[in-house]
Give the backbone structure.
Amino acid sequence: MESLALLVVIILAIALFSGPIALFLTWLPALNRESTSNLVALIRRVFVTFLAVIGSLMSFNLFIASAGFAVILMAIIGSLTAFFAVKREYYPDGFGNKFSGGSDRRNGPSGQH
């Protein structure tokens, strides 16, 4: 029984904490400087992607199991923070003008050559 309880704790911890850890890695100032090497940026991107994928898969399994309100809330928190971590990592300037409805950035004074 202890091993089953340990397995449940591990699954819930992965689902709940992988998204916030990935989001923290995107905000960590030491890893996000312009002066960081490409290797450090690549390692950060791999960790963020790995944590987001694993956390999203665990959260999806918890959604399907529908164990209770608290578990579903943990899965929602993990999934949303993983989504925002991936968004911050791969789209640091936003998604572009498809969703915002604004004009293209290149049409400003510096973009007209």
